[in-house]
Description:
By secondary structure, the chain is mainly alpha-helical. The chain has helices at 23-40, 58-76, 83-91, 103-122, 144-174, and strands at residues 132-135, 140-143. The longest helix has 31 residues, at 144-174.
Amino acid sequence: MAQAKKLEAWQSGPVKGVPALLQPVAHALLQAREEVHTLMGGFPKELLWERPAGVASVGFHLQHLTGVIDRLFTYARGQQLSEEQLTKLRAEGKPTDDNVYLVQDLVRDFDRQVDQALEQLRGTDEATLTEFRGVGRAQLPSTVLGLLFHAAEHTMRHVGQLLVTSRVVQMKEQG
């Protein structure tokens, strides 16, 4: 008997507690989490910071996935970034001297951020979705919905880049 194909997040029905208009954001974040787990299962830590052809490393993408959700959801709440968030932003893609990051640690950080984002989505009033939100020091114009949608879209873009980079560095390693 053929094995049933696993459904994508958007095919699994509504995410409990998430307002209807924010379901696509929730589905994209859940899909991203699933794909990150699939891609990073067994990924060798020694390849985490490899940059084939000068592209961003797997480590960068894992840090950036977590960071971009954190930052954009912060702006969606109408807040500015904290010093801690700015420090993490500057550190994205830079391995520490002792290279203490393990793939599992970065994946766990991403999981926590997705969980926090889902909680924020559950608490978001649909009536606020078109409210103005200023982004960054320049207060670039956006809306709650614009920021939440961009967080989901940007996350999926980096999951795609993570997929390619992880395969390239593993194939290169295999020779």
